Amino acid sequence: MLSYFAKRTMIGILTLLAASIIVFAVLEVVPGDPARLMLGMNATDDAVRALQEQMGLNQPLLLRYLSWLGGLLGGDLGRSYTYSVPVFDLITERVAVSLPLALASLAMSTLIAIPVGMFTASNRGKLSDTATMGIAQIGVAIPSFWFALLLVYVFAVTLRLLPAGGFPGWNAGLGAGLKSLILPSIALALPQAAILARITRSALLDVLGEDYIRTARAKGLSKRQILYRHALRNALIPVLTILGLQFAFLLAGTIIIENVFYLPGLGRLVFQAITQRDLIVVEGVVMLLVATVIIVNLLVDLSYAIVDPRLRSQQ
């Protein structure tokens, strides 16, 4: 188990290194000069060159990459061209919004999807199964931004139960902060719950056709005992895989939702940094997201051995 963990950790480190090279190279070929964008198109060439020298943009490409990589290893993500503050501070401020939003959405999605998947799998072929999976298919097809606008119209505009957008900050109180995240969490969670419910149903149906399930039925175990004691745990491998992918998506793919609800999260930060060509911010956020995906995938791989002891000997 320890050798497997060490191997996966080494692969993760190499993946981070490769990602840093790709991210840096891709953003360097993006057209536009950050210094000229900051000073305006009417700025003189001397002023642009002076700002480029101040920002370190006139150094050779390899030296700039090594300097940036060394900063990453030391916890220094650089300084934002636009905001003139450390990138680490910007990311920390925005993560305080995006991380609770992603966790709340993931928890909501899981609490909805797994019971629904179990219900439909245990009632395969019945009207309830067909109706539930039909609703799930609609949930998969509905665009998240349209669903978000619908939630705003119903719960914020019509019923006036929840705020339509904005984030008061955690200093305003835990209740006020959570209240502002309810609608965005629902808008993110329900489409993901529809996907996860279908995956759970499919995995359970595969397990319910195994020989040991038929043996359990022959022993007289109830349908509920078979489902919870034998089928669910063995069906969790693909479910855990999707959960890991969904968390990465929820943390990184919230640009549209954060713009709909005007939330100051990582998604909006990346969007603003791209439009302003604040490359150092984009690089920092992307590397944070890559590291998060690698860590989550590592935890998912380790959880396989916990869920299914048979995999421990194979690792």
Automatic annotation (TrEMBL):
Molecular function terms, GO-annotated: dipeptide transmembrane transporter activity
Protein known as: Peptide ABC transporter
Principal subcellular localisation of the protein: membrane
PROSITE patterns attached to this UniProt entry: ABC_TM1 (PS50928)
Pfam families recorded: BPD_transp_1 (PF00528), BPD_transp_1_N (PF19300)
Domain named ABC transmembrane type-1: residues: 95-300
Bilayer-crossing regions: 12-30, 99-121, 133-156, 235-257, 285-307
Source species of the chain: Phyllobacterium endophyticum
GO cellular component, one term: plasma membrane
Subcellular location: Cell membrane
Keywords tagged on the record: Cell membrane, Membrane, Transmembrane, Transmembrane helix, Transport
Lipid biosynthesis found in the keyword field: no
Assigned protein family: Belongs to the binding-protein-dependent transport system permease family.
Membrane topology: Multi-pass membrane protein
